[in-house]
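S.,

Sequence below, as promised.
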Amino acid sequence: MLIEDFSMAFRQLRMKKARTFLILLGISIGVAAVVGVASLGEGIRVNAVEEIQRSHDLTLIEVSPGLSSGNLVLITEAKVDAIKDYGVAVSPYVSDAYVTTNKTYFEVIGISQDYLDVKGLEIDTGAVFEDGTRQMVLGSDIGEKFEKIEGAGIGDVIEAQYRSYGEDGRSVDKDTNFGLVGVLKPTGTDADDRVFIDINTALELDEKDVYDGITVKVDRSDQATAARAAIERLGLSCYSAQDEIDSVNKIMNGVTLVLAFFSGISLIVGGLMIINTMVVSVYERTREIGIAKATGASEFDVIRMFLSECIIIGIVGGILGDVLGILFSLMIDGVGKPILVAKLGISNFEHLTAINIEILVAGFLVSLIISVISGIYPAWRAAKLDPVRALRQL
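The prediction came back faster than expected:
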């Protein structure tokens, strides 16, 4: 039965070649617009994610104090020991703000020496501080700042002041000094503007026994999610580059959906063309419908006869739309990439657009759904025709 319905529908569409061509053109252009715009959004998303992956280490997890039931969860030595079960390297640190006698403010990070390896920090000039000493290593930017403002270089002593808080909560400004022993290579991160000292010295100066954060490194990036979940169960907060990737995915999925919606408005035109064509077809085939109903065809049989044509239109329109959409995305890529390179200097991407099977399937399904929905009303009108009145029309 279905084969006969589709065979009849195909013959009907062939009899109206010009009308069918215009309908298919309207549907396929609408689908092509949706596919092209969706591929542009997907391409931007993919490029953004790849840039994050290039510039961030996905095996690193930054841990900070958290909240549990409204209470602050501090990073104690016990927490550090517990976290060591989830990472190949666990490096706690403390941070504080200092100021030199020349009023140069700088952030000091108390770390163990393995922190440098975990973060990929390398010495450019000088050496690494020794454990238990008041020696410091500067980031590249703060090193230049100290050289210009303080006139300090390797081997000099930096006099600084920091603020300590007693048990009564009152603050006391204390003086200290550090020997400058090394400067790090530039990294392009916030490490360039920080000063690093031994973690035990930092804890001694701060007069505290808890840490401000931990850097955890896992063996592989696919282990980061499980490690992070385990750490968060300890009541601590976590951050990783995956957070940025997730944010980009959410934003670009929303942007792509909105762009595809507005570009898909052109599909409404195709849908209206289908409604118009099917309504006209009902009038043209009134006598045929009357004969079919008089010889025992049910209303459902008539509806199926018209919807078969719509399904064929939807299938062919979806396929053509996907093909045109691929060509459209290639055109966007060919034209848009040189413009970005010339105008914005952005060149660290291979393609501006990205097409995947999900986009093509979505374009095909949209075409099919629009076609079927558009044919429901004309098919219903045809099914409701009175066979007696229909047979009177010549």
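The longest strand covers residues 171-184.

Coffee later?
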